[in-house]
Structures are given as structure tokens and as C-alpha cells.
Design goal:
Layout (H helix, E strand, L loop, with lengths): L4 E7 L3 H7 L1 H4 L8 E8 L6 H4 L7 E7 L5 H6 L16 H10 L4 E5 L3 E3 L3 H11 L4 E9 L2 H9 L9 H7 L17 E5 H6 L14 H11 L3 E12 L15 H20 L18 E7 L3
Parallel strand pairs: 1-2, 1-4, 2-3, 6-8
Antiparallel strand pairs: 3-9, 4-7, 5-8, 6-7
């Protein structure tokens, strides 16, 4: 049967969160032969394979190993870099998202973080709107933002968090008391769009590799200008697990490097938004797919 949905997950470590999130894929009501996970792994130091070993044969999964140091922009900004030194680089999803979307076999892309816990009907609802009804939309689900208490609840449960169903899960983690993204906060935490839309705008703009954040806002706006309007879809839901305790240097939000990177990217984005000067074509100096960064693709088909 033809694949309909490709969940493209940009990942660097966060293996424990991804392993927990896998249960939200196993309970999808869309038949498993109709979707896949494209796990795009940018130089993880964790053994991610052991995190998904228990689901092999139960789903279609491809583990794409990517090395961002192969990209021309990285080489330009790190001409004298030596192993162990801090890179002039950030693990933004531009390369991983673009490579994953280019490799995706489904006609619908699910863009979400590897730590997202999915409600069971997300894939089915997205395919109904984007394939069956042929909506020209970029769907953004209602995403609850977990916190330390949410993660402690999840960690304390030996059983599968999906066992009691989505409404019971939301009740157990007190979702009503959690922050969540609203109709004016459309990020790709739990989102779906046609692959054709990604191809039309040539993916995420590599200009955002120069800093931190804003690449998702820019991507959403360029997709809308290309004809796929952003839609807030509250029947599609997810929960974002907390990862605020991360200590890796490139994720240190208290560092001056992070602050400077955030300033740079916001400056680019808000200039474009303020002046409505989004480029009609991006990533013109190198292939938008970033496939030159792909080191290996391991295929794990549904048995």
C-alpha cells in the first residue's frame, strides 16, 4: 500500500524522550503500512538504535545519519576548526528537515519534534484533510507544553502512557493547567503539510543556519505565500515533553553565543516580515535537499 504520511524527525540525542514518544506512533489509527518515520540523526552521541529496537518490524522506520560538517556553509564558517573546539554552528533543523523531507516517501509530511507525544488520530485526521479533501493547508495542531512535573509523571509510570487513551492521559498530566500553543503561535511541534509544499518553497532557508530559531516562522510564512495557508487544527493534538535540563553547549540558552545567534536570526525574520520581502526562491547556492550531508540510511520496513 502506498505510504501517505512521513513523520520527519530532526534529532540530536534526546533518545529517552524519543523512545517514550514512539508509543504515540504505535497507537495511530491510520494503518501502519500507510506511514513511516524518517529519523534524521545529526551526529548524535547517544545510541539511538537501542531506543527504537523494540518496535522494529512493527512500523516503517528509516534511520538517516547526517553529518552537518559536510555542508558548504559549515565549511565556510569553520575553516580552521579542530575536533573538541566549539563550532560556529547551531543544531537548527534546516539541514535535517530538508534532507528528511527530500527522502520522505509519503505525500504528507508530519513535521514535529522527536519528543512530541501524538494523539492517536493525528495521522488519520491529517490525511483526511490533505489527501482526501485535498486542502491546500499547513495544519498546526494544539500542542501542550509539558514541564518537569509532566516528565516526572511519565518517568514514574512503568506502563505505557497510551494505555488509558488520550483524554485520560491529558487528565493524568493535568493538561488544562499546562501552557499550550494557540492560533497565533503556529510552530511545527505537531504539524502536517503536503510534501509538494516543501518542494515548492525549497525547504527551510539555510540563512537561518547562522543562528538560533525563527526558521520555522519563516518556513510557515513562505509556504503560505506559495499557496498553502496555515490552519490551526485543534482536533490534531500533541504534548511536548520538557527538555529544559539539557546541558550541551550548543543548547545552552544562557550563553552569549545562543543570545547572539537568536538576535541574528530574529533580525533576518522580522526584517522580512515587516517589509513583506520574503525571497521567492531560497537555497540557491547549494541544493536545498542537503543530501550531501547524508552519511547512511538504515531501512527497517514493516514486517
Amino acid at each position: 500500500m502506498t505510504l501517505q504520511v512521513s513523520a520527519v524527525l530532526s534529532i540530536h540525542n534526546r533518545g529517552q524522550l524519543f523512545e517514550r514518544a514512539l508509543a504515540g506512533y504505535l497507537w495511530q489509527t491510520l494503518p501502519r503500512e500507510q506511514w513511516e518515520i524518517v529519523l534524521v540523526d545529526d551526529c548524535s552521541t547517544e545510541d539511538l538504535q537501542r531506543r527504537y529496537a523494540h518496535v522494529l518490524g512493527q512500523i516503517n522506520l528509516r534511520h538517516v545519519r547526517l553529518d552537518h560538517q559536510r555542508h558548504a556553509l559549515w565549511k565556510q564558517r569553520n575553516p580552521n576548526w579542530r575536533p573538541g573546539e566549539r563550532e560556529d554552528w547551531f543544531h537548527t533543523p534546516a539541514l535535517t528537515i530538508n534532507a528528511g523531507c527530500a527522502l520522505a516517501r509519503g505525500s504528507v509530511i508530519c513535521l514535529c519534534h522527536p519528543e512530541i507525544l501524538h494523539a492517536p488520530e493525528n495521522f488519520a485526521l491529517a490525511t483526511e484533510r490533505l489527501i482526501q479533501r485535498q486542502e491546500k493547508s499547513f495544519l498546526f495542531g494544539l500542542t501542550y507544553l509539558g514541564n518537569g512535573e509532566t516528565d516526572r509523571w511519565l518517568s514514574s509510570r512503568a506502563h505505557d502512557w497510551t494505555r488509558e487513551g488520550w483524554p485520560a492521559f491529558l487528565s493524568a498530566v493535568n493538561a488544562r493547567g499546562l501552557q499550550h500553543f494557540g492560533p497565533n503561535e503556529l510552530y511545527w511541534y505537531t504539524s502536517f503539510l503536503p510534501k509538494a509544499a516543501v518542494e515548492a518553497v525549497r525547504g527551510v532557508d539555510f540563512v537561518y543556519l547562522h543562528g538560533v530559531a525563527a526558521e520555522d516562522d519563516d518556513f510557515r510564512d513562505r509556504v503560505a505565500l506559495a499557496g498553502w495557508q496555515a490552519q490551526y487544527a485543534t482536533d490534531i493534538q500533541g504534548l511536548h515533553q520538557d527538555h529544559s535540563a539539557e546541558s550541551e553547549l550548543h543548547r545552552d540558552r544562557t550563553s552569549w553565543q545562543w543570545g547572539e545567534g537568536l538576535r541574528r536570526n530574529r533580525e533576518v525574520y522580522f526584517h522580512r516580515r515587516r517589509n513583506q520581502q520574503y525571497p521567492s526562491v531560497v537555497n540557491t547556492e547549494q541544493p536545498w535537499e542537503a543530501l550531501e550531508c547524508v552519511v547512511e540510511v538504515q531501512e527497517y520496513p514493516l514486517a
